[in-house]
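We emphasize that the prediction below concerns an isolated chain of 295 residues; any contacts that depend on oligomerization or on bound cofactors are therefore not represented. The input was used exactly as deposited, without trimming of termini.
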Amino acid sequence: MKIIIHNPSHSGDILHTLEMVRILINSNPTCKFKLAPASCSCMYNDLICENVEIIKHNCVWDSKKQKNVLIKTDTITKLHNVLIHYENKILYINVWKMLVQNNHTCINLLGRTSFIKNTIHEMNLKFNLNIQFNCDNDKQLIPILPNINIDKIVNYLKSLNKKLIFFYNLNSTSGIENEYAVNINDKVIKKLLSEIDDDTILLVAKKTDIQSDKIIYVDCDLNNPLSNDGENLLVNEKISRLCDKIYFKINGGSLFILNKNNINIDKQFYLINSSNSKDWYNIIKKSYHLKNLII
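Result of the prediction step, given as a token string:
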């Protein structure tokens, strides 16, 4: 059977649905899968095998324009807001809808296993199919990121012989940025610079106009520019593993830290204060099991 798993959204939604895709593939080994992400295709690199391939999504996310750009209309682009579609013996599954439908936030994983199993059960009855979703609990939905080699960057940062802290100064493209104070990124950078000593380097994801010998801008100084395939986000996350403290806001690119590598470790994660930071804090603690999360 042919199954097309598509996701019309971008970074964070690709991230938070990654294990849903993996579990669907592993649970149905006799099916042929085609994966159509609108962005961050590199997230699926370690899923490619004999029965799994990545295909082009024709309403692709443009990271520079910060919006989806329609290349041409086809069956997948017409299913932007449709959870399940079955046509000509091809099953279309919209994993973005698997994440957000009947969910109170776009990052919450609690209750998703039950929702997905019920959805698949109803789908099997309706279309006389036998699709499986072998997942025991919501914790299994926490993403496992594909590995990426950044040895040159790691060796360089270690050679500095400094303590490292990381600030994800990326912005949300889905309205959440309105929850933060005006110029919040610059305010956080300036505050951190005032607090750190000469033996500490502040790694900042995206270049700003603030200049300091204590800052390394990851995008330009470490040659990690914005990319539609999302590789820059994997690089950011792997660099952050070298840091004792990580400061972040709620947006897709920053939330790559919410992965299985960070479950119950001693690293300190600082959620930047916002009008809804307490709600986000509770969701992150319960869904992603960060041990040391501080607002």
